[in-house]
Amino acid sequence: MSLPGRIIIPGLINTHAHLAQSLLRGLAEDLPLHSWLCDRIWPLEAAYGGQGDTADGYIAARTTIAEMLLSGTTCFLEAMLTHGSGIDNVVRAVSEMGIRACLGKLVKFVETNPALKIKDARDKDLSSMSIESLLSAHATFHGGSNDRIHVWAACGTPRGAPLASFAEVGRACRAHDIGITMHCAEAPRDLPIFREVYEGRTPMQFCRDAELAGHKTILAHMCHLDLEADIPILQESNTTVAHNPTSNLKLASGIANIPRMLEAGVNVALGTDGAPCNNSYDMLREMHLASIVHKGAMLDATVVGAQEALEMATICGAKALGLDQDIGSIEVGKKADLVVLDVAKVWAAPWDPDATWGMDPVSLVVGCCTGRDVTHVMIDGSFMVEDGSLCSINEDEIILAARTAIRGIQQRSGVKVNSDLPDGHKT
């Protein structure tokens, strides 16, 4: 195959994504995190329904995966697979579409801190979120589709459930070699909550004592830490941080101190989060933001460069998932998960692959490319995307199904979006 004017990079690895939320793109704009969750996202997700080809969880998963593939993601970690999405729906979508997936099955407990006034409208069946349900899903689905599907545990932000309950999850996962992902220290009030509810502990002291920290644990966001106490525990325990810069900026959550983490040797990977808090699952866009936001935040142009951002989205993500022996870099003996980018365009000029003085290709990829520059995507040696189109999936059918599904979800949820706009501008 001749690919003039192209750059080949390892398949991108998204370590924090919500498959269900592609259907909610644009429906929770300009809201603080609490309102974003309680008034929009959770009520809308609670209204997911349907079966078979019309199941909202299946349609959402296909929509998200299609966007991921077209923009160069070859592997992802689902951050919180809820009962409404249906793990069987998601496994079916992953199997059909050929992507590599780690599926975080939600494990949840009844919260014990009513003063927080956080009610998750999705909490209809706590038995579906038990450790037993996780172990059952792992036994049923883990290793499926030629080992492209791995089942992980997913926990929500600790805001009141007993530490001992989280420790049960940690022990069960370690006993069965199940990876753990958890939202952690995302909002400004999370650090005070940890200290108040969990006997003065910081976020990482909690994770250490709850037996959650360690290899194949990925903690998302991590914007509000006690840096002196928490960063050493992160490093010593080999726990990964999933950095989500777009989501954290859009929801005004804050900016994680990634430069300090990298300096200490913490493994940092990259994630997009979901469509309502990012508007995109494009990891190339996420890399660009990760490579510039910390320069402004730290007033230091030398921190978190293009090479580090690319590694976050590739080999560091693979290490986080325990898959770095197979994916994350282009090496002999590894699986052929590859992405081809077309840089023979005016926005890349005057870059010339034959020139000795030219722009660093890594800086070109991170600083200039977006998912729309992806022409080919290969997973395990097979093309999933060729010439910018999905190989075996009808993109028009995915778009139509998504448009149909969200109309029903909105009607069932009763959530009013843009209700304060003139009639001609409502969606």
TrEMBL record:
<dbReference type="InterPro" id="IPR050287">
    <property type="entry name" value="MTA/SAH_deaminase"/>
</dbReference>
<dbReference type="Pfam" id="PF01979">
    <property type="entry name" value="Amidohydro_1"/>
</dbReference>
<dbReference type="InterPro" id="IPR006680">
    <property type="entry name" value="Amidohydro-rel"/>
</dbReference>
<dbReference type="InterPro" id="IPR032466">
    <property type="entry name" value="Metal_Hydrolase"/>
</dbReference>
<keyword id="KW-0378">Hydrolase</keyword>
<feature type="domain" description="Amidohydrolase-related">
    <location>
        <begin position="7"/>
        <end position="382"/>
    </location>
</feature>
<dbReference type="GO" id="GO:0016810">
    <property type="term" value="F:hydrolase activity, acting on carbon-nitrogen (but not peptide) bonds"/>
</dbReference>
<dbReference type="InterPro" id="IPR011059">
    <property type="entry name" value="Metal-dep_hydrolase_composite"/>
</dbReference>
<protein>
    <recommendedName>
        <fullName>Amidohydrolase-related domain-containing protein</fullName>
    </recommendedName>
</protein>
